[in-house]
Amino acid sequence: MRMRFDVIFRGVPRYVLTTQENPASADDRYWRSIALAPLQERFLLDGTNFMHGHVDVHLSAWDSVDLTDPTSSDGRVAGDVAVAWTKYHRGPWSVWGGRRFIPWGAPGGVHLDGLGVEVRLTEGLTLDALAGRPVTPAYGSLLGGHPGFDGVTAAGGARIGWSQPGTFSAAVSYLEHWAAGIPVRRIAEATFVVNPTRWLNVRGEVSWDLLGLGIMQADVDAAAWVGRTVEVDAGYGHLDPALLIPRWSILSVFVTRTYDEGRLRAAWRILPVLQVGAEGAMQHYDVPGVDASQQGPQWGSRVEFFVRATSRDRRFQFTAMASHRDDGVHRMLLLRTAGSFPIWGPLLGALEAATALDDDDFAAPRTSWFGRASVEGPVAAAWRLGASVDGVRSPLAASELRGMIHLTGRFDVRLGGRQ
Amino acid sequence: MKRLLALLVAVALASACNRPASVTRDHIRFSHSPHLSRGLSCTTCHANRATPGEVVLPPEQQCRSCHTAPAEQRCDFCHTAPTAPGRYARTNRELHFSHARHSSRVEGNCMTCHGVGAATGTVTTFEPRVPTMDGCASQCHGRDMRALNCTRCHENLRRYSIDDVALVRHGPGFARHHGAEARTMGSTCAQCHEPTFCSRCHSGEPGLPVADLDPMAVTNHFVHRGDFFARHPDEARFATNTCTRCHGVEFCDGCHRASGVGGGVGPGSTHPPGWLNPASPNSHVREARRNILTCASCHESDATQVCTPCHRVGGVAPSPHPPGFRAGIDARQHSVCTVCHGTSP
């Protein structure tokens, strides 16, 4: 059984766009800064093979208490259970119940309260089925937002997957999602991972919207290893944004452009502890049936270079990255570097810096920068204490300072012989 | 006097070093080569009578059945510490392994696995070896190694360092494309990651980003470092498909509504001047066509109030549907359609 417990206390401003009626009976809008000092706690638990090896339990939960929130009408306390499920498995059968994140079924996966069954039909062939109520985790009022749709929803689906270890794995699934009395999503999905040779890995996924009869999202990547140190990865992605919006929102039936991307990435591990790489991507935007002259820029690009170094014991880590993005309208250069290192004995330190520059005007509001200094060390068996100070310039704030103290406990508990 | 003291200390140390330990750890003297050179096969000693095909380490009486000479019957013929005899040193390697299944595949030739890395030129020098992972990979399990299909052999990986595995498999960009592997063969992920590991990101807990939970893991090539919040609107513009791999649009709408973002037109608003004028370069028409998810990130819930007054049938704005639009639901029954079309579209 493994447990992790985090306590984070931070001081951070939050910005709320506020409307106020002026003497001329018009609305004035301004960003109101609210200082928050939330105390956040998080608990993770993974227990496996209880009760003669047949029962697993998984739990992830958090809560937050805002010690300074001046608008207590929004609530000072927030919390949620992110994951809480148990599984009974015996032979090829397993049954689970509770709140769980399912990685298949829809782009981004499905998070739901429900029940499911998993059966291993033969070696490598598995069948999954589930049903329940999709959930969007609740965030704490001023610490975040609530989901946009709180009505009664239900979802159910099934997947069948075949896995020939090391060679070929594939799965197809169907998921249906109902809300507001109508089917808001009917998704068929196919995924595969294939290793035709020892040096080639091809993986892909495609999601069809069976209501709108279109491909919601698709991705295919092929990664080839040259020797054991060079990886070349070519990929293609497609997205139809409107099909991702569930049918209960009328935005799901509005015209919008599709998005196609081709990308090529290469990474070279020069030394076991040092890796460099680059990535280039081109994007094409298109509104089917609409004249190109009315669509605006149709091409975008992304270019990226990076270096990563990590010592064997992971006490020294360094990364640097430069990336340029262009969507035909805006262009942005992103620079980031960070490193962590031993300060003294078990005490570790980390420094991070990042800036995002608007190509057309370096002083434009969208230009931002970020800096962080952190220190962390053990305070007792299994417990670590750390602190960070951030300096930030964002599109909303010319400059701001944040602080954070965090305490983390990790426990690996063996109960009986099979834990 | 000092010399005498030094001599005493030296004698004491020497005697201490020469004194036999009170408990000597036993081990069993054994060499395969003399046995093989006498023409014995592996199964002469290692056959498992209870489970045909499986192998055992031979019990003592089996050794004694051949070693009948009086000198060979003495305990110290095999045991280095006959007063405290032990058993064979056993190591629990935490493997799913069956000799029976393997021996049929190698046609009973134990050398296929146990000869890897051993001197096999002559039986007089041959000592079989316990296969290493490299040996398994070079013989049959190369694809399993490449695909990190570790649980085909290993019960778990807890006694191994995760670093080597992570460095090989989790290359740059892995965070962006791990979905296909997780969906197709999640059991591979589960070899190292507990199920709650996914929830660290996929349950959407903006108050506890990964960068804050593990601030020392600065080389995690993960998009949500501390600087991400400031530039997330641009990231969403430049690489929409990256966001939607993990986030549904409701993820955006919830936070934006709580922050008051998305309302109003003109100065102080998130919408630029000219937003409602179709002829303006800042027109909402262009932005909506560029990416409707940008609209949905604030108006997914209230689009009925925001968009419908103009875009409904008979309104001042044209139909927002794309050419060849197919609703996929019965338009006469559902409010999503009737809000613009009435009850008889």
Per-chain topology:
The complex is a heterodimer of chains A (419) and B (345).
Chain A: E1 2-21, E2 27-36, E3 38-49, H1 50-53, E4 55-66, E5 77-90, E6 93-102, E7 110-122, E8 125-134, E9 153-164, E10 168-179, E11 182-197, E12 200-209, E13 214-226, E14 230-239, H2 241-244, E15 258-271, E16 274-286, E17 299-310, E18 317-326, E19 331-344, E20 347-358, E21 368-380, E22 383-393, E23 400-412
Antiparallel strand pairs in A: 1-2, 1-3, 1-23, 3-4, 4-5, 5-6, 6-7, 7-8, 8-9, 9-10, 10-11, 11-12, 12-13, 13-14, 14-15, 15-16, 16-17, 17-18, 18-19, 19-20, 20-21, 21-22, 22-23
Chain B: H1 2-18, H2 32-37, H3 42-46, H4 60-66, H5 70-73, H6 99-105, H7 111-114, H8 133-146, H9 162-169, H10 174-184, H11 186-190, H12 195-202, H13 210-213, H14 228-238, H15 240-244, H16 249-259, H17 284-290, H18 292-299, H19 303-306, H20 308-311, H21 335-341
> Can you summarize the main beta sheet of chain A?
22 strands, antiparallel, barrel
SSE order of chain B? HHHHHHHHHHHHHHHHHHHHH
Sequence stretches where pLDDT stays below 50 over 5 or more residues of chain B: 13-23
Shape of chain B: elongated
* SSE order of chain A, one letter for each helix or strand: EEEHEEEEEEEEEEEHEEEEEEEEE
Number of helices of chain A: 2
Q: Quick one: how many beta strands of chain A?
A: 23
What's the mean pLDDT score of chain B?
Answer: 73
Rounded to the nearest angstrom, the radius of gyration of chain B is 37 Å
Total number of beta strands of chain B: 0
The coarse silhouette of chain A is: globular
Q: What structural category do the secondary elements of chain B indicate?
A: mainly alpha
How much β-strand is present in the residues of chain A?
A: over 45%
Radius of gyration of chain A: 25 Å
Q: Count up the helices of chain B.
A: 21
Distance between the termini of chain A: 6 Å
The biggest sheet of chain B amounts to:
none
Helix content of chain B: 40-55%
Low-confidence stretches of chain A: 139-148
